């Protein structure tokens, strides 16, 4: 059974800012990769993917984890691959972290999907539409509110 988890971003949380959200996405990707998952980060577009890849490079050396943009890096890619609409992830990805607001076309290609419900009302509506897509594709759905200190 495939699963989709939506993380709800509270308005007052550090993750509500662009910088805080990017840090949280990197944290989640690293968390899943350290557990052995092959992670695909689905970004809005190529500049967004490049920006997120750059954020990975800015991590402290002890937190660094190998990553690459789609089409770059080793033949079978690294544990974390970063792409966007219009490019195909490597065949060996089990989990996608969706940070794009466009409708997903990959809902039936991954066993695990991580998505987000942002604070912004327009972005929330787009998240609701993605939720419907996952439900229609037969995913088991759950929501988790991000807790912060």
Automatic annotation (TrEMBL):
Its EC number is 2.7.7.7. GO terms for molecular function: DNA-directed DNA polymerase activity. Keywords: Nucleotidyltransferase, Transferase. It comes from the Bacteria. It is an enzyme of class 2 (transferase). This is DNA polymerase III subunit chi. Pfam families: DNA_pol3_chi. It comes from Vibrio olivae. The lineage of its organism: Bacteria, Pseudomonadati, Pseudomonadota, Gammaproteobacteria, Vibrionales.
